[in-house]
C-alpha cells in the first residue's frame, strides 16, 4: 500500500534501545515521524491518547497514514486503539519488544486503555495489519520484565495441555535458545484460540485463566500508594495460584497439581504480600472484570491441565480460602 506518512509510536525506553535497530532495517522514502509517550501502565489512559491524536493531527496525518507501535503491551494496546479511532481508523503494525507483548498483548487484536486504575475498560477489538516479532529486542529487557512475560506462557501451558506445560516445570534450566521456540509455540496457541473465537464468546475466555483475580490484584496494587506496583505477570501468577486452588475446591482439579504449580511459581516469582484486611478490597474490584455479565463474576477454572471450564461462578468464601492458601 502507498502510505502518505509513517508514524512510529515509542516510549522513552524503546526510543533509546529499540528504535535505532528498527530504523536501520527500514528501507523507505516515505516521511517518518516519531511520537514518544511516557512508559508504564500508569500512562495507559485516554489522556495519553488525546496527546497522540493531537500530535497526529498537528503532523498532518491522514487516512492513508500508517502507525507503527514499537514497545510493550502499553504501546501496542494504546497505539492500536489510537489507530483504530483516528479518522475512524488508519492502518497499524505492532512490533512487540517485551516478552509479555510478544506472547500476549500484540496478538489477538485487543486494543484499549485503562479507566483510572481499572484495567482495559475502554477499547475495541481490531487486528493490526502485521505483527513483527524479533527476539533480538529481548536483549534489552530487564529480568523482571522477562519473568512477567513468562507468566503468560505458563498460562498457555496450563490451559493447553501437559506437553507444553511440562517444558516449564524447571524454570531455572530455561535458556534464551529455548525461548525462541517457546515464544513461537505460545504465539501459535493464542493465535489458534483467537481465530476460532475472535469476539470472546466462548473458547477465547480460556485465555483469561488467572486474570480475574490477577487483574483485581494488579489494579489494587496500582491504586494503592503504599504498595509497590506489580508487573502484569507478577499479578497473574498470584491469580493463577488462586484459580488452581478454586479449581481444586469446585471442579476436583488434583490437589497435588495445585501444590506443584504453587511451588514452581513461588520458587521463581517469590511471594506477593497480601494481608487478610486487603482481601475484601481486592474482591470488590472483581465487579469491574470485563468477563462479567448479569451481575455474575465469571472465572475460568481447570478440571485438569489443558481441560478448562469457563463462566464459573465462585462464592466469596472460596475466594478468601484461596487467598489464605496462597498466604500459607
Automatic annotation (TrEMBL):
Domain spans labelled 3-dehydroquinate synthase N-terminal: 35-147
Source domain of life: Bacteria
Pfam hit, one: DHQS_C
Cofactor section: Co(2+); NAD(+)
Keywords: Cobalt, Lyase, Metal-binding, NAD, Nucleotide-binding, Zinc
Domain 3-dehydroquinate synthase C-terminal, first and last residues per copy: 149-292
Enzyme class, spelled out: lyase
EC number: 4.2.3.4
Function: Catalyzes the conversion of 3-deoxy-D-arabino-heptulosonate 7-phosphate (DAHP) to dehydroquinate (DHQ).
Listed NCBIfam families: aroB (TIGR01357)
Name of the protein described by the UniProt record: 3-dehydroquinate synthase
Amino acid at each position: 500500500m502507498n502510505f502518505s506518512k509513517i508514524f512510529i509510536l515509542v516510549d522513552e525506553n524503546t526510543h533509546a534501545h529499540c528504535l535505532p535497530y528498527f530504523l536501520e532495517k527500514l528501507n523507505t522514502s516515505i516521511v517518518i515521524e516519531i511520537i514518544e509517550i511516557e512508559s508504564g501502565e500508569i500512562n495507559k489512559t485516554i489522556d495519553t491518547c488525546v496527546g497522540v491524536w493531537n500530535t497526529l493531527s498537528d503532523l498532518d496525518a491522514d487516512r492513508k497514514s500508517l502507525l507503527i507501535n514499537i514497545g510493550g503491551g502499553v504501546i501496542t494496546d494504546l497505539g492500536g486503539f489510537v489507530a483504530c479511532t483516528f479518522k475512524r481508523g488508519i492502518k497499524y503494525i505492532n512490533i512487540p519488544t517485551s516478552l509479555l507483548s510478544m506472547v500476549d498483548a500484540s496478538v489477538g487484536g485487543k486494543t484499549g486503555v485503562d479507566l483510572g486504575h481499572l484495567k482495559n475498560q475502554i477499547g475495541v477489538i481490531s487486528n493490526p495489519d502485521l505483527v513483527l516479532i524479533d527476539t533480538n529486542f529481548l536483549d534489552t529487557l530487564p529480568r523482571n520484565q522477562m519473568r512477567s512475560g513468562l507468566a503468560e506462557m505458563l498460562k498457555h501451558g496450563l490451559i493447553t495441555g501437559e506437553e507444553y506445560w511440562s517444558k516449564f516445570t524447571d524454570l531455572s534450566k530455561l535458556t534464551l535458545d529455548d525461548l525462541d521456540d517457546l515464544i513461537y509455540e505460545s504465539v501459535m496457541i493464542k493465535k489458534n484460540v483467537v481465530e476460532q473465537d475472535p469476539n470472546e464468546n466462548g473458547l477465547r475466555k480460556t485465555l483469561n485463566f488467572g486474570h480475574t483475580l490477577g487483574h483485581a490484584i494488579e489494579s489494587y496494587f496500582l491504586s494503592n500508594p503504599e504498595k509497590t506496583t506489580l508487573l502484569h505477570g507478577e499479578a497473574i501468577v498470584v491469580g493463577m495460584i488462586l484459580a488452581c486452588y478454586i479449581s481444586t475446591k469446585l471442579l476436583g482439579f488434583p490437589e497435588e497439581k495445585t501444590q506443584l504449580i504453587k511451588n514452581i511459581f513461588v520458587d521463581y516469582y517469590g511471594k506477593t504480600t497480601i494481608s487478610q484486611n486487603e482481601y475484601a478490597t481486592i474482591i470488590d474490584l472483581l465487579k469491574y472484570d470485563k468477563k462479567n455479565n448479569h451481575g455474575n463474576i465469571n472465572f475460568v477454572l481447570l478440571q485438569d491441565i489443558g481441560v478448562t471450564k469457563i463462566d464459573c461462578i465462585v462464592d466469596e468464601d472460596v475466594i478468601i480460602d484461596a487467598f489464605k492458601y496462597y498466604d500459607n
